[in-house]
Amino acid sequence: xxxxxxxxxxxxxxxxxxxxxxxxxxxxxxxxxxxxxxxxxxxxxxxxxxxxxxxxxxxxxxxxxxxxxxxxxxxxxxxxxxxxxxxxxxxxxxxxxxxxxxxxxxxxxxxxxxxxxxxxxxxxxxxxxxxxxxxxxxxxxxxxxxxxxxxxxxxxxxxxxxxxxxxxxxxxxxxxxxxxxxxxxxxxxxxxxxx
Length: 195
Hints:
The protein has helices spanning 2-6, 9-19, 22-43, 48-64, 75-93, 119-131, 135-146, 151-158, 162-178, 185-188. The protein is mainly alpha-helical. It folds into two domains: 2-93, RNA polymerase sigma factor, region 2, helix turn helix motif (Rna Polymerase Sigma Factor, Chain: A); 102-188, Arc Repressor Mutant, subunit A (Orthogonal Bundle), CATH 1.10.10.10. Helix 4 crosses helix 5 and helix 5 crosses helix 8 (151-158). The model is unreliable at 97-113 and 186-190 (pLDDT under 50).
């Protein structure tokens, strides 16, 4: 059991593939379930129950489709590729009606007039701004700025060229920043860097 804890993610996946090791899967779950829960909560508009279901479903997929993992790939990138695809499928299957309201800022400046520098209000407005993004833009924004993935790995996860990732990040950043204009610039300064 102690050996399992010292093994790399990729070594654990090799054990799952060759021996159907429950211990290896449990160890991967310990390492990544919280991070994945946070990712799914952000991607699924803060629906924590749905996010928990997605985490469980993802680890079931890892177990059932372990043969699809390629040893020359990083497990972490493969894991988030599956998570990203699950979100895409969810959005595709649960059609969202986009109303005219989506083109307007996601919060009313008057609501925040009393204390524009309040970090809590800023963070809430940021979350609302992220929630308003189209799925492709939301995915790259969250992977880059909230999950701290490098551009090349985001390209692998989303299965798009790096140029497309940069373009989506530019659009998403511009849209989110537009919704934060009412706040003290010290919060916006150097907040988003694409490179």
